[in-house]
């Protein structure tokens, strides 16, 4: 369940900014039909930073309800306060989620020892499998391979989502962890290369709008058919790049609406709608990928 194309699912909202449950069901059905391996609910792409704690819990639980056992659900449970991250994680004990994705603490800029103690404390308060999430471009904090290796020795820390885009990290981490520790890419542009170096899948933004294609690409890579996987990935490359022309999830929510996957591309402040110029760029990327 922690392999292949795992979608970092958007949280659809209506024109007043409330969660749009009908569109959430439509998105889940789309991913089930497209072969997506799992859903990450309320991660960065799911706008965890602007949902209240109650909304956060409700979106994850409704995602579980609407998926109805057809696709595994991973809960985003990161916070920059260790106690808050523990509370978020414990909320989903015995809920049906298959694991938690927990980002490095943002803004605080902890030391490597602080990162180790943060994730160790979370893991000690749950039996749920834990996926570490390293994305320094958004958090201002980089969890280094030796720290990941130390954490990998904790029984229920089973994987890392490495989103630096630095492919050297794959071998650096692999040299330090056991073979059963799972490496997942968090960067669509380098995701296939990451898999060719030994990664097991991609937690993907692109999968929101190209679910079948991302699932096929990851399946081909898992089979060792990198020639066909690369052909497909090249078609998706404009999307991998242009879906980050503005801060995620601004472009991908616009793209979801453009493809009819949800009713609006509403975001909550401080995120603002995709500009007219950039919407043309994203539209062209969707066309180039054969989706429009």
TrEMBL record:
Family annotation (InterPro entries): Aldolase_TIM (IPR013785), DapA (IPR005263), DapA-like (IPR002220), Schiff_base-form_aldolases_AS (IPR020625), Schiff_base-form_aldolases_CS (IPR020624)
Name this protein carries in UniProt: 4-hydroxy-tetrahydrodipicolinate synthase
TM region positions: none
EC number: 4.3.3.7
Compartments, as annotated in UniProt: Cytoplasm
Active site per database record: 133 (proton donor/acceptor), 161 (schiff-base intermediate with substrate)
Pathway(s) served: Amino-acid biosynthesis; L-lysine biosynthesis via DAP pathway; (S)-tetrahydrodipicolinate from L-aspartate: step 3/4
Residues binding pyruvate, per UniProt: 45, 203
Source organism per UniProt: Sodalis ligni
């Amino acid at each position: 369940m922690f392999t292949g194309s795992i979608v970092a699912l958007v949280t659809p909202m209506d024109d007043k900014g409330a969660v749009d449950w009908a569109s959430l069901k439509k998105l889940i059905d789309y991913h089930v039909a497209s072969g997506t391996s799992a859903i990450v609910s309320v991660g960065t792409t799911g706008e965890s930073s602007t949902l209240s704690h109650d909304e956060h819990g409700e979106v994850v639980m409704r995602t579980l309800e609407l998926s109805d056992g057809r696709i595994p659900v991973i809960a985003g449970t990161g916070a920059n306060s260790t106690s808050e991250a523990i509370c978020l994680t414990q909320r989903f004990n015995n809920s049906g989620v298959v694991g938690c994705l927990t980002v490095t603490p943002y803004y605080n800029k902890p030391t490597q020892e602080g990162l180790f103690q943060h994730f160790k404390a979370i893991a000690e308060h749950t039996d749920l499998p834990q996926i570490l999430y390293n994305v320094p471009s958004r958090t201002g904090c980089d969890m280094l391979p030796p720290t990941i290796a130390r954490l990998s020795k904790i029984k229920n820390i089973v994987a890392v989502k490495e989103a630096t885009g630095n492919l050297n990290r794959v071998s650096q981490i692999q040299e330090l962890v056991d073979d059963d520790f799972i490496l997942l890419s968090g960067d669509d542009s380098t995701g296939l290369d990451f898999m060719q170096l030994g990664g097991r899948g991609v937690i993907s933004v692109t999968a929101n709008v190209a679910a079948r294609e991302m699932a096929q690409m990851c399946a081909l890579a898992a089979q060792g058919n990198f020639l066909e996987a690369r052909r497909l990935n090249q078609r998706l490359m404009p999307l991998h790049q242009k879906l980050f022309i503005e801060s995620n999830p601004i472009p991908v929510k616009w793209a979801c609406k453009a493809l009819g996957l949800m009713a609006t591309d509403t975001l909550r402040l401080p995120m603002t709608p995709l500009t007219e110029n950039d919407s043309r760029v994203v539209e062209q990327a969707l066309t180039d990928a054969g989706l429009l």
